[in-house]
Design a protein that fits this description.
By secondary structure, the chain is an alpha+beta fold. The protein is 10% helix and 24% strand.
Length: 116
């Protein structure tokens, strides 16, 4: 690796495996986790698709990602102990590339804890 290290390394898509079902899909650079799953016809639990209901929560078993800057804080839908175990709001969370394993209740409606 040269002087600049990973500074100019191009981003890469993320290959995601769903723990339990074994389903796989690819998240293109710049796409959130849930949108890529739905595009791949994975029966991901969801409702609002904008980070306000919490039904798309998933646990990241391995891999890395981030929430982009936003006036809304999707982490308010996650309890502190859930966040410590790797839970994220998938419709607002962006993988950073490489391989990833997630745990999610495929084919269920999901817990809409943010809905009134």
């Amino acid at each position: 690796m040269g002087f600049f290290g990973d500074l100019f390394k191009s981003a890469e898509p993320t290959k995601v495996t769903v723990k339990g079902s074994g389903e796989t899909f690819v998240v293109p650079v710049g796409m959130n986790l849930m949108k890529a799953a739905l595009n791949a016809k994975v029966a991901w639990p969801h409702s609002c698709k904008v980070g306000s209901c919490g039904s798309c929560r998933t646990t990241i078993v391995s891999g890395d990602g981030y929430y982009p800057s936003s006036p809304c804080d999707p982490t308010t839908l996650i309890k502190p102990e859930e966040a410590e175990k790797g839970m994220v709001i998938a419709c607002q969370w962006y993988p950073k590339g490489g391989d990833m394993e997630v745990e999610v209740a495929i084919g269920t409606e999901g817990d809409k804890r943010g809905m009134i």
